[in-house]
Amino acid sequence: MDHAQLTRKQKEFFDFITDYKMEYDVWPTYREISDQFNYKSPNSVTQNIQALLKKGYLIKGEDEEYDIHPEYGEVLDDKKSTGIPVKGLIAAGYLQEAVESDLGEITLETLFPNIESLFALRVSGMSMKDAGIYDGDFVLLMDSDVKDGDIGAVLFNGETSLKKIYYGKNGLRLEPANSEFSDIIVEPDIFEEVRIIGKYIGHVNKNGIHRAVPARKAS
Fold first, then answer.
1. Does the pLDDT of residue 110 top 60, yes or no?
2. Which of 9, 21, 117, 127 is catalytic?
């Protein structure tokens, strides 16, 4: 690739955003980039992106969003794996001879047998931080019934919210997992406008996959 050479800091910036894109298939947010490099202002993110565009490592698409230059994109595609290789057996009882063999891969279908019913949304905000769900995480949702006390995604009045859902004779109570936020009460007169769009089964962030903890019923 005959592009202008990057400075050390530009290369670190480029490696971070491309590695993130390769792992999550989306770009990191400005906040995530700023946290990674301790930037005080989002302008620093913009300046680095502009430098990479000028040097040909990034390009602008039809929608004016930046993307990896096709030549570098091919290198990233070669690095991608469809799953986690299973390289053999290991004893969990008595010691036994190590056996190496190709036993296939652990794929998303292995981790989530009902993957056809799953979808993901990206979290914006900190109202569920005490449940371990932070701004920028990807919540995994299943199109299934949400029981009392489960975390779910709710659509009402044209807005979405991720909360613990409790059913009552007077409607719904949407409870945050952060004491800085108040419950949201959905009264009967607008109950018909409410739609539960998915049950939370886990979330994904740079630390890995986190499965939902079974809900406890409200006392």
1. yes
2. 127
Q: What is the CATH number of domain 115-211?
A: 2.10.109.10
Is position 9 annotated as part of the catalytic site? no
Of 150-154, 157-161, 184-188, which one has max mean pLDDT?
150-154
Q: Where are the domains of the chain?
A: 8-79, 115-211
Question: pLDDT per residue over 32-78, tens digit each?
Answer: 999 999 998 889 999 999 998 888 888 887 666 788 877 665 555 55
Nearest to 9 by CA among 37, 42, 41: 37
Query: Do β-strands 138-142 and 151-156 pair in parallel, antiparallel, or remain unpaired?
Result: unpaired
In the set 163, 164, 217, 219, the catalytic residue is: 163
Instruction: Assess whether 199 carries a catalytic annotation.
Output: no
